[in-house]
Amino acid sequence: MKKYVKKANLFSGRRVHPGGILPMIHWNNAEIMKEKRGVHNMRKRNLWISLAAAAVMTPAAGASAEEYSAKEIEMKLTEAAMERNIPPEIVKAVAYAESGWRQTVDGEPVVSEDGGLGLMQVTPGEAAVYDEERLLTDIDYNISAGLDILEEKYGWTGGLLPETGAQRTDLEAWYFPVMAYNGLVQVNSPIYSDSGETNLNAYQEGVFSTVNSMDSNLETGTFSVTLEDLDYTEEGVGLSVTADRLEPSFTTESAFFRGEGDAVKVSSGANIRGGPSTGFGTEDDVQGPFFTIEDPVVYDERENQHFLWHEVQPLGTEDRSVYIAASLLQPADVSPLPLSTASESFTDVENNAVIGRFAASDFVGGYNNGTFRPENNITRAEIATILTRMIDNLPEGTDHPFADVEDGIWFEEAVTTASASGLLQGQGNGIFAPNKEITRQEIAVLLYRLAELTGTELTEKNDQTMTDVDAEWAEESVDVLTRADVIAGVGNNKFDPESPATRSQVVTLLYNLFYKP
Predict the structure, then answer these.
(1) CB of 94 closer than 8 Å to CB of 178
(2) Between these two residues, 49 and 316, which has the higher pLDDT value?
(3) Which residues contact 100 (CB under 8 A, 6 or more apart)?
(4) Over 80: is that where the pLDDT of 240 sits?
(5) Cα–Cα dist 356/344, whole Å
(6) 145: which residues sit within 8 A by CB, 6+ positions away?
(7) 357 vs 232, which has greater pLDDT?
(8) Alpha-helix runs per DSSP H in 18-154
(9) pLDDT at 130
(10) pTM, to two decimals
(11) For residues 425 and 438, what is the distance between their CA atoms, to the nearest angstrom?
(12) Domains in the chain, ordered, with CATH?
């Protein structure tokens, strides 16, 4: 007779067995807790009730298997999910609902009374197509089998399950597949049939409660389901979702699929740390709100914490890495505004349609006498004004710290926004130096920063190298932009890096970066 390592499913569904208390995996970090209202608070309360009802897993005779720590299991689940393009947040929560993140107890495989096997609790009918021994002893094989089944349920979308309008990497796209993973049964109905109220005891509600509890800054959308959307096909047992389409209140894209080099912005008031744990001190001198991702998947150093960190660099800095909880970051969502096809004319500009189009777009302006003065050297105040006019969705600053930027002066708002965005910084000692001219290498660094922020691809089109750029902070920017045909030298592989940039040169460079076909 086969003996079992008995376990109770952590949430209501077709595999519920009585038992004692399962040791908790602590998701929440008190420091980053935030208030959640409505169903999300109810979901989280329901999670802890479910945890308290979970069973102790007791070892039994059978095939032996390796023991893994919670952190090792988290990493395995995350990596397997990412290979399948499934949000790891979903996979980790399903595995926790199924087995409490247990493949084994005291070296013996976890087997439920209904025959669910291992970490992902692959059931006998499903196990028929898999090697049962490997499901019990090989955690990677067990995870893969579970993801096969979850993907199969996702494939039911648009057929047995409704369309949601969410993308595959959105957490909400997996709400109904998660329900089907446990079973299309009435106990998993999104609402109670007698009252129409949300069924917080449904398996998928418990899974999404865990998703939200892994990181208290994370919040997922909810579905408004009515009795007309469901068919209770067998009294007390069967359930089908008859609605063709049910959309969530909002969608939440998995943070795990952000990539190296992606630009992100941080929530106001977020803690920026020197390492991937709240045990590290805050880096209070780091300016935001924009950062570029250095490493998108960094695990918390503590064994019992399972939210995701990003290693990031503040926009415009080099060799300075900090860490921010991924749920506190959003895509930068910054882009250049469209360039007008119309053109304005200036008395001192001939055969330069680009300047005319920039003027028609209100990105640049001329002087009262009808001139543009294209050969004038551009100042820091002027470049701040151009950038804040042409780059959409920059955060508006409310104040600035610069003693040399007078209240009400024509460039005050532009300097405030450019400074708050991290595009242009002060010169030290509370000085912005608005009338200071910008050098060619400074413009190159600024353009490279803009490319990072807007996600503009810089494709190498030549192998030219400038030989006179000695400043380490400018070398990479000049090199990349030269090879991408955004900037050009002055001849003989010279860039003339310390010469001032002119008004016409800056307009041309911005056109090359963002608008040139």
Answers:
(1) yes
(2) 316
(3) 7, 10, 22, 23, 25, 54, 57
(4) yes
(5) 4
(6) 120, 122, 126, 127, 130, 135
(7) 357
(8) 39-52, 70-83, 88-99, 124-127, 132-137, 139-154
(9) 92
(10) 0.81
(11) 13
(12) 37-241 (1.10.530), 258-333 (2.30.30), 336-514 (no CATH)
